[in-house]
Amino acid sequence: MPVLNSSGDAQYEPRISAQPQLMAETAPRRARAFPVCANPRCASGWLQLWRKRGVPVVEGGWLCSPACTRARVEDLLRREQAEARPAPPHRHRVPIGLTLLTQGWITHQDLKDALEAQRKGSRLRLGEWLVAHRGLKEEQLTQALGLQWSCPVFSLEKQAGSLPANIVPRLFSESFGFVPLRLTASGRLYLAFEDRIDHSLALAMERMVGLQVVAGLLGATEFREAQRLFAQGHFARARLIEAGNLELLAEAFSRQIEKEKPAEARLVRVHDLVWLRLWRDMESRDHAQAAVSGIEDVIGSVVRFP
Known about the structure:
Helix content is 38%, strand content 19%. Among the domains are: 96-149; 156-302, Type II secretion system, protein E, N-terminal domain (GMP Synthetase, Chain A, domain 3, 2-Layer Sandwich). It has ten helices and eleven strands.
């Protein structure tokens, strides 16, 4: 609207519009109404609004396109590669023979004879030799190993119901020597090992399933029986992939994710293998009730071909 100044000339008074402020207030609200791609380098921008897909979701983040799925998977593989460090060999502060001797389960002569057998090339480990040749009870050896590793000793007799076979691929149980023993309503997963605790594997399991993992030991006889019972369970479908390098493995993983369109997927490294688990729906994330039909495992490795 024009106004007159002191000299009588007409001037136009600038009007202050509320529109920019309104846009500033509504823009964040509008942005929050649409999903944000989990790929930090996504260049789709406003084109995301036209993508009619709510899946796949990888580690809690939606991915808007196959290209973003590939980029995200490659980032996760590089994360696992960077965090992989060879664990130093575990050294117990107290040798198993001295532990058994301190508990009064063997004599000095028993220990001397076992060490002599080791020196002469016995294929039995010291504890196994004492069980076989000096009457040491298997339960006593397991208790001594539990003291060495500062871990609980489990009993298969107290195990109620079937072993949770849907919690881990059978290949891992057989390759790394453990059995998922029990899954509690409070969210604890008990992993049983025979004579040593694989802390790296227990941590990988904890990251994958999102449960508190308690690792302990089973006696040799009970452990073999637990393996037999576990092998009778129903397992999720597993797919094995070998690739010549990390980029090819990322391509294979991302193709599988795009094919299955999982409601959630997670990726962890288990020693020299990479474990990708796909959940087809969120109900399948309930480990106690999940049907194996809602889960697929993809196990990958990088092989240096000659």
